[in-house]
Amino acid sequence: FYYSQTANMADSSGAIGITVSTLFFLLIGVLGFFVGAPKNENRGVVQTMIITTCVCLYTFYVCTYMAQLNPLIGPQLEVEKVFLGANLTKKT
Q1: Cα–Cα distance between 52 and 55 in angstroms, integer?
Q2: 3 state SS for the chain
Q3: N or C: which end of the chain has fewer CB within 10 A?
Q4: pTM for the complete prediction?
C-alpha cells in the first residue's frame, strides 16, 4: 500500500519538474530573443546564440533530470552497514 502511494507521487513530481523547467527555459529564450539582443548589425547573430544556448541547456537539463528518475544502477549496500543503520534507528 505504501509503495503504490510513493510510486504515484514520484510519477507526478517528474512531470512537474519537466514542465517547470520547460517554462523557465522558454521564458529565458523569449526574453533573450526580444530584450537581450542589442539593436545593431549583429542582432541576428546574438539572437541565434541566445536561442541556441537555451536549447542546449534545456536538452542537457532534461537528459540529466530524466536519467535521475530511472537510474540504471541502484545503491549497493553492505549487509553490515544496513544492520548498523537499523540498530541506530531502533528506539529502546
Answers
A1: 5
A2: CHHHHHHHHHHHHHHHHHHHHHHHHHHHHHHHHHCCCCCCCCHHHHHHHHHHHHHHHHHHHHHHHHHHHCCCCCCCCCHHHHHHHHHHHCCC
A3: C
A4: 0.64
